[in-house]
């Protein structure tokens, strides 16, 4: 694994955790002072970065498995082990805290369908999981499933991904926390971010030093974060910039222009694990 990708995971985890912690500290029961809010207000972009990184990393790790059905089982096993066990542990601990009357925002799933949605990370109902921050994992699982079709059949996989991207572009929806359901989660614009990550991998494979991609990506992201734009457009421009940054940074590392420290403890965490920790902390207080 390229170390710049590991560093990216760590930075994304830190930014999202800082964003949530600042919000929590702004609540009356945590002191009412959103410390460092001016510095962490864009920390939620770390989720966008996670999605871009996931698109890059999955293609990076499994590009040689595409159109090889025999590789599907190993792919599915690796994705399952990477995500579900730790998610179930965090969910179990959080539900246990709720059973003791701790926490104020989270709720138990109200029926079997909601429990199934929460435990499988597949949207069967519009019920929210006990760990509200796990909303990102529904998109991760959807991407893993879509990519697995490429492994079974490259041709069919490309068709499925293309149609899915078209639907997401046409609808271009960012569902709110309390409005997510089995339709809008899988047609949300967030799902496009994984494809940007795959595009970044394609640029990486083309070679080069990466300086142009890195600089242009930083400029795009900076413009989108500082100039007033419609929310949807701003998000897409930021993600396009992040994808270019990833493409450029990976090229720079391969060319020997940068050396990245190993962020093994943080980078080894599954997606959003850092903010699960803040959810558990919030539930205890």
Which secondary-structure class do the elements indicate? Answer: mainly alpha
Order of helices and strands: HHHHHHHHHHHH
By DSSP, the count of extended strands is: 0
pLDDT averaged over residues = 87
Dominant shape = globular
> Mind describing the biggest β-sheet?
none
Q: How many H/I helical runs?
A: 12
Tally of structural domains = 1
Unreliable parts: none
Cα gyration radius (Å): 19 Å
Can you give the helix content as a percent range? Answer: 55-70%
CA-to-CA gap between the ends? 38 Å
Describe this structure in words.
The chain has 285 residues and is mainly α. The protein has one domain. It contains twelve helices and no strands. α4 runs parallel beside α12 and α9 packs antiparallel against α10. The N and C termini lie far apart (38 Å).
In short:
By secondary structure, this protein is mainly alpha-helical. The protein is built from twelve helices and no strands. It starts with a helix and ends with a helix.
